[in-house]
Specification:
This is Orotate phosphoribosyltransferase. By secondary structure, this protein is of the alpha+beta class. It has a single domain, classed as Alpha-D-Glucose-1,6-Bisphosphate, Chain A, domain 4, CATH 3.30.530. 26% of the residues lie in helices and 43% in strands. The protein is built from three helices and eight strands; from the N terminus they run ββααββββββα. Strands 1, 2, 3, 4, 5, 6, 7 and 8 form an eight-stranded antiparallel beta sheet that branches. The mean pLDDT is 95.
C-alpha cells in the first residue's frame, strides 16, 4: 500500500526542515489533535497512539541530508515506512510531503487506508507551522 500526502510549501530552508524532522522530539508538534499518547523511547525512537488505534513505535531508519528523512515501524508485525521528502524551492522556501509505504493484507489495507491518509495529511499540514 502506498499513500502520499499533498505537497506543502514551507517558508523554511530544506536544512531547517531536515534538522527538525531528524529530531524525534519534534514529531509531537506534528501529531494530530487525536493523539492519546506520545513517548520518546530513545534518540532515534518514539511511540505514539491516536485515539482508537494501537500504539505505534517509529524509529529513524535513514536520512539524506536536506532531502529525505525515513522513519520505519520498529515492529515486524506491521512493516511500513514513513518518508518525509524535502525539495528546495528558494533559499528560504521548500516543498515537503510524506509518503507511507507498507505491506498489508487486503483486509488490513481497507481498515487503515483512511486513518493513515488523514494522518499523513495532518503531518504535512502541521509541518507548515514549524
Amino acid at each position: 500500500m502506498y499513500i502520499e500526502s499533498p505537497k506543502k510549501t514551507i517558508d523554511k530552508s530544506p536544512e531547517t526542515i531536515f534538522n527538525f524532522l531528524n529530531d524525534v522530539n519534534n514529531y509531537k508538534k506534528l501529531m494530530p489533535d487525536s493523539i492519546s499518547k506520545f513517548e520518546i523511547l530513545s534518540e532515534k525512537r518514539f511511540l505514539f497512539a491516536l485515539k482508537g488505534m494501537p500504539d505505534i513505535v517509529l524509529e529513524l531508519k535513514n536520512s539524506v541530508p536536506y532531502n529525505k528523512v525515513v522513519l520505519g515501524a520498529a515492529s515486524d508485525k506491521l512493516p511500513f515506512t514513513l518518508t518525509a521528502n524535502i525539495k528546495e524551492l528558494t533559499e528560504n522556501s521548500s516543498e515537503a510531503y510524506f509518503e507511507f509505504e507498507g505491506e498489508f493484507n487486503a483486509m488490513m489495507s481497507m481498515m487503515i487506508k483512511g486513518p493513515i491518509t488523514k494522518f499523513i495529511q495532518t503531518l504535512a499540514e502541521n509541518l507548515q507551522t514549524i
